[in-house]
Design goal:
Blueprint (H helix, E strand, L loop, with lengths): L2 H9 L13 E11 L5 E11 L5 E10 L4 E8 L8 E6 L4 E7 L4 E7 L2 E7 L6 E3 L2 H8 L1 H5 L4 E7 L4 E15 L2 E10 L10 E6 L5 E6 L4 E2 L4 E2 L3 E5 L12 H7 L10
Parallel strand pairs: 9-10
Antiparallel strand pairs: 1-2, 1-17, 2-3, 3-4, 4-5, 5-6, 6-7, 7-8, 10-11, 11-12, 12-13, 13-14, 14-17, 15-16
């Protein structure tokens, strides 16, 4: 497996990977990504969610902006048929790269277009826990009670960028305080020999399982300078807006988001 493809196996976890009218509620979540080693600012994630009255996400649109405010990528998601395996399409025009899921029935249909070459594959549904792209975030929050008890949760992840699925496992590796809020740190890694060549990722959630606070691991965004995904990023959701961050709605978000008010990704 090529190094870039190996990285993309975990890139979909970024945040993940990672969320009005009478019937629909709107919400915006903003994330700020830095190089994990140097802390150099890399990009801003802006996630716009539409939710049903009971709070469940229905559809979403994500846009990614570099430090100059230029759009790097965009993604559309539809969770209505399956909140763990959403229909989605991720586009990075400058990199001539597109990936996504066009059917989340049985089989799941994944596709990828890279430099003009297209691949498409049908994956038969399997039993047990299974997620894809940002549905991974929903899976972890659903399983947080088990993780807080010290259990290891195994699941399968459909990776459209590799037109395949892989086995992963998640476990709790620590508790911490984020400001005045109790939080838990989770580690996710391949549940196979793939973990020998792919670094794990770490995520921090509030202990109520209502929101993702931070993510550290491989990115799902290609670095224009190298043509490969950023190998290790640190992303924070909510809190103060970094001075380096640029995106079209920055002024409104800076006024709306306080350090103690991180939005939910559920």
């Amino acid at each position: 497996m090529k190094l870039l493809n190996q990285a993309r196996v975990l890139a979909v976890l970024s945040a993940a990977t990672l969320l009005t009218c009478e019937a629909v509620q709107a919400e915006t979540v903003v994330g700020f990504a830095r190089d994990a080693a140097s802390q150099r600012f890399l990009y801003t994630e802006v996630h716009d969610f539409n939710r049903s009255p009971d709070g469940r996400v229905q559809t979403a649109t994500s846009r990614y902006y570099d430090a100059q405010g230029k759009e790097l990528a965009r993604k559309s998601l539809d969770y209505r048929a399956n909140r763990l395996i959403p229909l989605y399409k991720l586009e990075m025009p400058a990199q001539r790269y597109v990936e996504g899921i066009s059917s989340n029935a049985d089989p799941v249909v994944v596709f990828k277009q890279d430099q003009g070459k297209e691949e498409r594959k049908s994956l038969a549904r399997e039993g047990g826990l299974e997620a894809a792209d940002s549905g991974f975030n929903h899976l972890l929050m659903d399983q947080l009670p088990r993780l807080l008890k010290g259990e290891t949760v195994s699941f399968k992840l459909i990776v459209a960028g590799n037109t395949d699925r892989y086995r992963f496992r998640a476990r709790q590796v620590g508790e911490l305080m984020v400001g005045q809020e109790a939080a838990v740190r989770l580690r996710v890694e391949p549940d196979s020999l793939l973990r020998l060549v792919v670094d794990p990722i770490e995520l921090v959630y509030d202990t109520q399982g209502s929101r993702l606070i931070s993510y550290q691991g491989v990115s799902n965004i290609i670095d224009p300078a190298t043509g490969q995904v950023h190998k290790q990023v640190s992303i924070t959701y909510g809190g103060p807006v970094p001075a380096e961050a640029r995106w079209p709605q920055r002024a409104a978000a800076a006024n709306a988001t306080r350090p103690d008010q991180s939005p939910s990704l559920r």
